[in-house]
Amino acid sequence: MTSVTRTYEAQVSAEGEWLSLTQVCRASQIDFDVVIELAELGLVTPRGSEPEEWQVSARELVRLRTAARLMRDLGVNVTGAALAVELLEARRELEGRLRALERCLHMSDERD
Predict the structure, then answer these.
(1) 56 sits in which H/E element
(2) Rounded to whole angstroms, how far apart are CA atoms 104 and 96?
(3) Which of 80, 99, 82, 72 is nearest to 35 (CA)?
């Protein structure tokens, strides 16, 4: 399973890369029904009209793999995993903004 995961991780950076739901389930080690639930909760935005036809952006695979680890390793339910992934991403974004502000302040202090 590791080689499959590595293959899809390499594709994550590709813009416009889409994976079938079967590929996503294999790479993230999540059941088909769980991916559907996570999509219904808004964690991923698949394209296609029916779940059997869905494709998920390779960029969203990271979100699914994080949710899978939370469910598997910590016993978090699907809803909790979706919320936790969103909160982790919000935290990373806020930390990035804080670092940018600190750099601006540091540069401002150097000019004075």
Answers:
(1) strand 55-57
(2) 12
(3) 82
Whether residue 13 has pLDDT greater than 60: no
CA gap 107, 97 in Å, rounded: 15
What CA–CA distance (Å, rounded) separates 14 from 110?
39
Written as one letter, the residue type at 90 is: A
Cα–Cα nearest to 64, from 26, 102, 110? 26
> Which residues does 112 contact at the CB level (< 8 Å), separation at least 6?
none
Q: Over 80: is that where the pLDDT of 38 sits?
A: yes
* Sign of the CA dihedral with 21 first, then 24, 30, and 36 last: negative
